[in-house]
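The pair is quoted verbatim below.
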Amino acid sequence: MWTRRSRAATELVKRADLLRALVEHVFENGLHDQSTNALAEALGTSTRMLIHYFDTLDDLRLEFMQKSGNRFRSEITSVSPESLQEPSSFISTLLDRQVEMDQS
């Protein structure tokens, strides 16, 4: 059965897709010193659409940090105590997992 998505649901999906694309872009290129125009181009959208979904570049950055932070926290809480014996290896593994999660 075909169901029609509401406009609000479609907007949420588009916003989430942009946020996922942003996470991938940031892990590859960083976020500092990037204008709204540069980010829009990198994400395959227009500046107008970024502003529509996120209001300002600061709002977009905040959303990115919240999304990444939530994922990172869940990874940290799932780590076994034995892996904490070697902190540099532990941190490296967490960062690798973060990138893998955000690219999927």
Notes: The radius of gyration is 17 Å. The CA atoms of residues 84 and 91 lie 9 Å apart. The chain has a mean pLDDT of 78. Helices lie at 7-29, 36-43, 47-54, 57-77, 87-103.
